[in-house]
Amino acid sequence: MNTISLFDQENFLAGTETRLGSQAVVLRGFAQAYVADLWPALQTIISEAPFRHMVTPGGQRMSVPLTNCGSLGWTSDTRGYRYTSNDPDSGRPWPTLPAPFMRLACDAAAQAGFAGFTPDACLINRYRPGTRLSLHQDKNERDFSFPIVSVSLGVPAVFLWGGQRRGDRAERVPLFHGDVAVWGGADRLRFHGVAPIKESTHPLLGTERINFTFRRAG
Ligand code: SIN
Ligand code: FE2
């Protein structure tokens, strides 16, 4: 697939919704109108809290480098997965959740049927060609009544959308620049992941993909 056809697909789908479950949906292109405000705020975040490879509780280096903003940040080390108020690398609080990030998360959640969502954590993952994220559940948050709001920027990915059990068959859902996936309620603990990223080029992000997942963690 070349850059032109990817760009065409992204724009062809914009404004549509792809239903993933009774309480899970992809809002196609929803973030596009926010990107001009998100982008400079993201640069500030990564200058204060750079992307880093964390270590799993089993001692493996994670292939996806990450950072966070918000009053809580998702953290992993040999002691386990958890949320922390401070960046373990700098010892300082994670950068605050910028207003345009908050606006996008609230608006997308409301559009997906979760009005009143106010995230306190945003995990930021960076993918390059070949990077993948294996199937997992987001379950380190305190209250599962709040949804997950996941924003895709840059080159496309194939989102693996599984079931309630690890062994359930996973659907392959393409995600493009500007797409926002929201899952909550009955779908909140669905297994999900990202297939290895293919080589392609995006005008804003080059060969990279960046994903934000907004959560209410505390
Ligand atoms: C995640 O599950 O944390 C990220 C999902 C994605 O990158 O689309
Ligand atoms: Fe996740």
Topology at a glance:
Layout (H helix, E strand, L loop, with lengths): L2 H11 L3 E5 L2 E4 L7 H14 L17 E5 L2 E5 L2 E5 L14 H13 L9 E7 L5 E4 L11 E7 L2 E5 L9 E5 L4 E4 L8 E3 L14 E7 L3
Antiparallel strand pairs: 1-2, 2-11, 3-6, 4-5, 6-13, 7-12, 8-11, 8-13, 9-10, 9-12
Succinic acid (SIN) binds next to β6, β8, β12 and β13.
Structure description:
This protein is an alpha+beta fold and 218 residues long. 17% of the residues lie in helices and 30% in strands. The chain has helices spanning 3-13, 35-48, 99-111, and strands at 17-21, 24-27, 66-70, 73-77, 80-84, 121-127, 133-136, 148-154, 157-161, 171-175, 180-183, 192-194, 209-215. The strands form three sheets. A seven-stranded antiparallel β-sheet has the order 1-2-11-8-13-6-3, with helices on one face. Strands 7-12-9-10 form a four-stranded antiparallel β-sheet, with no helix packed on it. A two-stranded antiparallel sheet has the order 4-5. Strand 4 and strand 5 (80-84) form a beta hairpin. The protein starts with a helix and ends with a strand. Succinic acid binds at residues 123, 125, 133, 150, 152, 159, 192, 194, 211, 213.
